[in-house]
Amino acid sequence: MTRLRHPSENKHYVTFRCPGCEKEHTVKVHAPGVQASGVEWDWNGSYDQPTFSPSVLVTWPANPNATDEFKEWRAKRVCHSFVRDGRIQFLGDCTHALAGQTVDLPDYEIKAGA
Q1: Does 2 fall in a domain?
Q2: How many domains would you assign to the chain?
Q3: 111, part of any domain
Q4: What 3-state class would DSSP assign to 46?
Q5: Containing domain of residue 27, as a range?
Q6: C-alpha radius of gyration, the chain, whole number
Q7: Which residues contact 38 (CB under 8 A, 6 or more apart)?
Q8: pLDDT per position as a tens digit, 76-97
Q9: Within 10 A of 74 (CB to CB), how many other CB atoms are there?
Q10: Is residue 114 part of a domain?
């Protein structure tokens, strides 16, 4: 079981599936001995029970021209959470249905050949 993956084998980034957004979120993590550039999150190194610090904030701007099929994109969207010990605590400023809830991070199933 794993709840994280490295996109494109880049060890400075980890990705998890967000059950609130139903999208992937990627964070740049601190790599010991590597000169940092930009914002980095502390990570406990666990793929099964990950913890990141500080919180993870993902936003998408509003698109007032979104078609009816994507009408949720007409308003700004926010996903703000703490990931601790393999659980994701959604903060109250989230714009999705899991705002204010804490749930397990889903397993990250890596497809064969991916």
Answers
A1: no
A2: 1
A3: no
A4: coil
A5: 7-104
A6: 15
A7: 28
A8: 889 999 999 999 999 999 999 9
A9: 14
A10: no
**Alpha carbon 72 to its chain's center:** 19
| 30 touches 36 (CB < 8 A) | yes
Residue 14 lies inside a defined structural domain of this protein: yes
With CA atoms as reference, report the closest residue to 51 among 3, 93, 91: 3
pLDDT band for position 66 (cuts 50, 70, 90) = confident
* Tokens encoding 49: 């029970």
Type and span of the H or E element at 90: strand 87-90
Q: How many residues does the chain have?
A: 114
CA–CA distance, 43 with 114 (Å, rounded to integer):
24
Whole-angstrom Cα distance, residue 57 to residue 9? 23
**CA gap 80, 2 in Å, rounded:** 22
Q: What is the pLDDT of residues 4-60, one digit of tens each?
A: 776 556 678 889 999 998 889 999 887 665 565 678 899 998 889 999 999 999 998
